[in-house]
């Protein structure tokens, strides 16, 4: 696609995360931002003038623009359902920040609507489309660790409650929404960085056994904090078992270990699209002794030009591009809505603690991107 025929996307929600999207949209010349809006008119004005983007006064006015094909829903989690629903009712494809919705019933309604209207609906995070995740996925599919058996996945964000989070601002000046972050919680906010890849690789989760609690008792000015330490064991239909831990207490650790019956794969940071991957192979199978880790080459160089500052080595807009490409090619998105719904059910079960079984929902298996499977 050339820039002349760029797909117009609109950003609804001009808060802290919206700057990530404007920055990384430049990695995708086939996309252009045709408009922005926010229910906070002042915030929308500041954001649109900071970035020089067309401003719409309300969601309805923006959605009435025929040229806008994809809505990027960057609103607060409790608005995701309404905004995604309204956008699809107006005929727009949707890429939503996570979570899909705040309840499984609302999530199911969005999936139903997308299927009924033949619209693409995908949900962040999109690190699944990154070079690191695609490399791990390819190695698993090629049998480089034999039959996958066990996963340890960590999503510890560091002791955020002890940081100066009230002073954090995005480049366009939006404050970090700490009340929303703490009340939504680390599972809904961040477990998807691992969960999306695990569901894509191993399919449906049939049972969740989880422990959830609040280790940090008092975060000033936050009334209802979600669990800040959650560790869940996920049993996949395919036989794989995964331990997925999320916290905002332990030092930052976003690592992933995938163990098979002939070896193991590791990567240090699931957030980083280009985090190196290492392979350990069985050298003495009868004693389960593994070789030292050796680098497993990334399927391609991770060199997108437009990056966000700080700790985020992510191409946030790659998921938006995937929605636009899937819509243009009339194919399913590599971030399927049904997977996002299943991820939401699993996350909610993890936050509740205890045991939850899931009946078969017939998730389609998906494969890595074609570029990742080339020899
Ligand atoms: N904060 C981060 O570092 C970060 C990083 C990646 C992703 N995210 C995700 O991005 C999303 C937004 O997070 P944020 O940090 O930008 O939050 P934020 O509170 O800073 O921004 C959300 C914006 O959405 C607007 N909004 C809410 N409901 C709306 C509605 N119904 N119609 C129009 N505008 C509405 C609010 O006025 C606000 O300006 C969340 O889903 C979050 O999980 C956040």
From TrEMBL:
The keyword Nucleotidyltransferase does not apply. This is Gfo/Idh/MocA family oxidoreductase. Residues 8-123 form the Gfo/Idh/MocA-like oxidoreductase N-terminal domain. GO terms for molecular function: nucleotide binding; oxidoreductase activity. InterPro entries: Gfo/Idh/MocA-like_OxRdtase_N, Gfo/Idh/MocA_oxidrdct_glycsds, GFO_IDH_MocA-like_dom, NAD(P)-bd_dom_sf. Keywords: Oxidoreductase. The lineage of its organism: Bacteria, Bacillati, Actinomycetota, Actinomycetes, Streptosporangiales. It comes from the Bacteria. Residues 134-265 form the GFO/IDH/MocA-like oxidoreductase domain.
